[in-house]
Amino acid sequence: MRVRILSRADVELGRAADAEAVISIRGSADGDEPELDLALAQATKGESARLLRLRFDDIGMTAIGTFVGPSIDQIQQAIDFGRRVIRGRDFFDGPVDDPLVAIHCEQGRSRSSAIALGLLADALGAGRERQAVNTLLRDDIEVRLHPNPLIVSHIDACLFRYGRLDAALVELSPRYGRWKQLWLDIQADPDAYHEKVRQALGKRSQPR
């Protein structure tokens, strides 16, 4: 299996058009996006079985404020979707060699990269977690990917990897390690985080 990590803008520019299937991740409160919907329909040729829609926010905890994090059921849906793509079920007449799944979120950095890692880890099999991480990071020339840590935790649970994917990411991706630590700090004191954000937004709004 191959994965392609995209932003919403990438999808609207047609960069998912050659994929066998698409996973579309939007925020829990996102409104209508007709341009994105049209691009998704074009990429999947209007075949609903080739498109998985998920809605959750890019946070590393179950909920914070009005934001809702990914559930383990949603991550299992994505894994099952990837398995159906590999088998060719619901998509083609039979199995397809090396199918491509395009996965997008808003920026193409966190939620989509974590789901992509889950599909790769499942396809490669247990014991090859480092290979899955290296495959994910291989094309990240700009070092912009930082998989969502809660999604990674759910993947470890769904695939019975007992934290091995998370450990491989911490070892091989310092950016992921910093992202994970940030969410650990936020979980420890969410009120302090909210106050920090409020102060930062206040400074930005002040005239210069």
What does it look like?
- The protein is α/β, with parallel strands linked by helices.
- The chain has helices spanning 8-12, 34-43, 72-87, 111-124, 129-138, 149-158, 164-172, 174-188, 190-205, and strands spanning 2-7, 21-26, 51-55, 63-64, 67-68, 100-105.
- Helix content is 50%, strand content 13%.
- Helix 2 links the parallel strand 2 and strand 3 (51-55).
- The longest helix has 16 residues, at 72-87.
- It starts with a strand and ends with a helix.
- 37% of the residues are buried.
- The model has no long low-confidence stretch (mean pLDDT 92).
Describe the largest sheet. Answer: 4 strands, parallel
Strand content: 5-15%
Assembly annotation: single chain
Radius of gyration: 18 Å
Strand order of the largest sheet: 1-6-2-3
What's the topology here?
Elements: E1 2-7, H1 8-12, E2 21-26, H2 34-43, E3 51-55, E4 63-64, E5 67-68, H3 72-87, E6 100-105, H4 111-124, H5 129-138, H6 149-158, H7 164-172, H8 174-188, H9 190-205
Parallel strand pairs: 1-6, 2-3, 2-6
Antiparallel strand pairs: 4-5
Q: Key terms for this structure?
A:
two-stranded antiparallel ribbon, 9 helices, four-stranded parallel beta sheet, 13% strand, 208 residues, alpha/beta
What would you say about this model in short?
The longest helix has 16 residues, at 72-87.
